[in-house]
Structures are given as C-alpha cells and as structure tokens.
Write a structure and sequence with these properties.
This protein is an all-alpha fold. Helix content is 64%, strand content 0%.
Length: 95
C-alpha cells in the first residue's frame, strides 16, 4: 500500500509495515500543518480568548490538534482518532 491508502492488513498494527520514508513523510506533514501560520494564529487567539493554561484553553487546543490528526493520520493507515494517535506513538517508540 502507499501513503494515500490504508496500510494495516489483517492482524497488523497500524504503521507496522511503514517504510522509514513514509514515517518521515507523515512526521513532515504533521509538522508543516502544526507550524502553518493560520494554525499558529488560531492557537494564539485561543490563548487570548481563554487564557493560557486554563481548562478551556487546553480543551480548545486539543480540538485543534485533533482536527489536524484526523486529516493526516488516515493517509498513513492510522485511524483519525485518539486510538490512531496512540498507535502512531507506539509505532514511533518501537522504531
């Protein structure tokens, strides 16, 4: 499978068969999206709106992060939810 299709086969953990190139591509895409000026501006606005470090700020920030993960992770065979994030992190730790 390629980076635009599902990767996990029956019994495989997501990301188990990803090449180093695919892993780096996923990391690069996440990094680019999280460092995008529009994303950062929205993140700054949340801090101003809710106060940095408050529960509302943390919750809104996590929703923003989750929106990016929901778009990127499925391209690399992970679900776009918390389970997919856990699977991605476990894959990084196993390499």
């Amino acid at each position: 499978a390629n980076a635009s299709g599902g990767r996990a086969g029956a019994g495989d953990s997501p990301g188990a068969t990803m090449s180093l190139q695919e892993v780096l591509a996923m990391q690069d895409e996440l990094k680019k999206r999280f460092s995008d000026e529009a994303f950062l501006n929205k993140l700054r606005a949340l801090g101003s709106e809710h106060g940095h470090g408050t529960n509302k700020h943390r919750s809104a920030r996590q929703r923003m992060i989750s929106e990016v993960q929901e778009q990127v992770l499925p391209k690399y065979g992970f679900s776009g939810d918390r389970s997919g994030v856990r699977d991605m992190m476990a894959m990084f730790q196993s390499r």
